[in-house]
């Protein structure tokens, strides 16, 4: 379960196993074993090192399915509050769309510069 979560977050970030191991300063083979479920009880130090480049917390990596759903619901509530605050301050839907398009364009540019 922890390995699956690490794998999903790593792939979402676009990191290879090698790159992730380098960024977290952990063994590539051990990281691979964790992700494949061959090792299922990583140390807190390992999880702390992994959490940093994944932009997450050790707590999130350790959550069970129910806790993860509660965390995601909380995140949804935070988004709702943020959107409500933006609306109260005069931000329009078009502004959000423009900002999203800008962020997507910046991500695309970053990808183009990698190749």
UniProtKB/TrEMBL annotation:
Domain Sin, first and last residues per copy: 66-104
Keywords of this entry: DNA-binding
MF terms in GO: DNA binding; DNA-binding transcription factor activity; protein dimerization activity
Transmembrane segments: none
Taxonomic lineage from the root: Bacteria, Bacillati, Bacillota, Bacilli, Bacillales
CDD domains with a match to the protein in the record: HTH_XRE (cd00093)
One Gene Ontology term, aspect cellular component: cytosol
Domain HTH cro/C1-type as annotated: residue spans: 6-61
Pfam family, one: HTH_3
Protein name stated in the entry: Transcriptional regulator SinR
PANTHER family: HTH-TYPE TRANSCRIPTIONAL REGULATOR, HTH-TYPE TRANSCRIPTIONAL REGULATOR SINR
Organism superkingdom: Bacteria
